[in-house]
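Run folding on both entries below.
>entry_1
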Amino acid sequence: MSYRPFKPRDYENVKAVVSRLFEQSGGAKSVMEMLDLSSTRVYAFTDPDSKNDLSYARVAKLTQETGARAAAEHLAGLASGAFLPIEIDSDHDWYAIAGEASRSNAQTLSALIESLSELSETPGEVSAAEARVLLELVDRQMALLALTRTRLMKIAAEDA
């Protein structure tokens, strides 16, 4: 059963984001069980008329346990960024693949970025079709870098 709040929420306000987080986490009943909270408390977190706020620790727990992306997407947007989920299977050595791809794509990406500059010696024109192909390349590279960053963060946290 998915979570469907009844009161209207302004898009991208905190209560709307929490509502999406709960829906992506399996609905109110699942959230109640995961966070060991009553239904009244869970619904209050999404009620625009309530002053109850969901703690960051609880947001992190829901995100980690369910893979819900609402909070990550919202926070990335607030930081003028974009959330790029990493969809990989564990049958490959993604770090070796990332290293090889980075070597082979470094010159291409460098030339692409320079060509988009209006101040470049050879400014280029990129068609919509070319942009779609290039976006796939850039997204793949960003996802592999994000995967590497995630691994490094886990290693850094081991000594903390």
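>entry_2
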Amino acid sequence: MARIVIVSPLEDSRSKLAGLLTSSGFQVFRSCSSGSELRRALNESEDCVVIMVGFMPDCKPDELIWDYRDSIQLLLIAKQQVLDNTESPEIFRLTLPASGQAVIGAVQMLSQLHRMRLPRRTGESRDIVNRAKALLMKQKGLSEPEAHRAMQQYAMNHGMKMADFAMRILEKSEET
């Protein structure tokens, strides 16, 4: 089952949503109050359904889906004005106030979609990706999230799997 990450600036919203989801059998992986906290959580996990409640000034939904489109499904629950300012067709939207039944149905659907499209990285390919990230961190002075994002962006832009790009990085380093 996909891990669920809740993000909202309001503690009450996060708490109520977490209660609703856990009582419906979902596992809430993380509850975040800011965009930066959300990005750290996403860099730790590769199988997330993100539920964003309301407007996050430091985390625009369109940017989030662009940065993590291969590893997340995004449900935005917000007022109609916020939903109208969201462009990406990959973002699932619910208008506030949303019923608990509508939220559960949306999360079930997104969990299934996420599970179907998420490539499963084997232990070997995960090790290759981690070694390549460590190499980039050392050579380029990047943090782990920066190295991960750089690799992810390059692989997406060139239609490659991240593990294949990681292997290229490691092979290049052995040549020098």
